[in-house]
Fold:
Amino acid sequence: MATYKEIFGTNIEVLASDPSNPVEGQVWYNSTDNVVKGAAVTSVGSWATGGSLNQARAQTGAAGSDSTNAIAMGGDVPPETSNTELYNGSAWTEVNNMNAATRLSVGVGADNTAALAVGGYQPPGYQSKVESWDGSSWTEITNTNSAKGAGGGAGTQTAALAFAGVPGGPMTTNESWNGTTWTELADLNLGRRNGGSSGVLNTAALYFGGNYPPGNVANTEEWNGTSWTEVGDLNTARQELGGAGTSTDALAMSGFTPVVVANVEQWNGTSWTETTDVSTARRETQGSGNSTASALLYGGKTPSITGATEEWTGAGPVTRTFTDS
Structure:
């Protein structure tokens, strides 16, 4: 039988860690993991099981850049919690709590070292309070103009957008943050609550799905920095779903139809396409990630409250582990 070297002209490399930019077909032995791995390319995305939240919960605020970087803020255990956890790609770590126990806040932030928790529900009602996370602690900053929760968000800690949600019935309200003050901007076309959102800029965002009584909607609206425009609908109308990505490259994950579903859809700037389902169908969940290349879905109800985390790797280069089976 021919050896690997005889076929390919080189030995299998022995590396302490996986190469940062492997090429398709490259094979190596990871001496830390004690396994043989190789680089491949896939045309569809996939889900992998990640580390569970330390405190299982639903209705959290969420932010983060990808499947290795996320923050879970508050949520419903029940009751409301102020617990904050950070994800590093394999495990969640408890850090300093929010100042107030809150659920259904709008989470905004490019990564887990700089984020906002906007509004949310604190008994006895929805709030206009805003807390800012600096990587180690929470600080209360300028309130929004109107109380809100169960809505969407986009942008960064110093340039954010918070829109839709409740109270007073599904809202169309849209507010922008410049690091100092909140300013009311053009409203959404359809007020709704519990939709999914995506966007790394406060001048480019997407809001999709949600609930407009008496039922769930598939509507998608895109923000261009000045106004909202209705674009292609989701294939499956739902609420209480997770969102990740940008205004032109987004994921809509799981949710409630009115049954809990595992459906995942990907937005390409024009239309939604069904892609690989999550392993654990859930509602009242949250997603994070700045693109569809790498994202995270965590927490929610299955219908029981869960701390389950799933990591998404989009189509493109992947690392495969070889086994003897």
Observations:
- The chain has two domains: 4-42, 46-313.
- The helical segments are 4-8.
- The chain has a mean pLDDT of 93.
